[in-house]
Amino acid sequence: xxxxxxxxxxxxxxxxxxxxxxxxxxxxxxxxxxxxxxxxxxxxxxxxxxxxxxxxxxxxxxxxxxxxxxxxxxxxxxxxxxxxxxxxxxxxxxxxxxxxxxxxxxxxxxxxxxxxxxxxxxxxxxxxxxxxxxxxxxxxxxxxxxxxxxxxxxxxxxxxxxxxxx
Length: 166
Hints:
The chain is α+β, with helices and mostly antiparallel strands. The protein has two domains: 2-60, no CATH class; 69-153, no CATH class. Helices cover 52% and strands 10% of the residues. It is built from five helices and four strands; from the N terminus they run E-E-E-H-E-H-H-H-H. A four-stranded mixed sheet has the order 3-2-1-4. The radius of gyration is 21 Å and the shape is globular. Residues 155-160 have low confidence and may be disordered.
């Protein structure tokens, strides 16, 4: 695993190259699929997540962001919600599924036997089916039910947050 040290002056040092690098260089490492870890040079603490968030922030500030303001607002609201863990798992599974679909599509395009339109149609239908199933599961779980559609034994009232009295 490639180790990158972040110093108090905010500089990043690539221990593999024995050279200082930029956030753009870290982005290149990510895009190549190489495993890496960013550690605080003084404490040794793993700060990879904060560097990844910084990269996303910079990417979102560019000409073509992925997330709308509405999406980001909803993401933030999930941090204080009981379904935060479910939402995180939902996003993770969807991103993995999307990456798998992309790879499958690239593989099929590389070994093109049938028409590209038929391949795209097949992938689209499978993707829509999986998205629909995952969305249904997420909504059931977010509404207090289990993945199988049944309520918890205590009912859904016990799973909701009670407003605090001040």
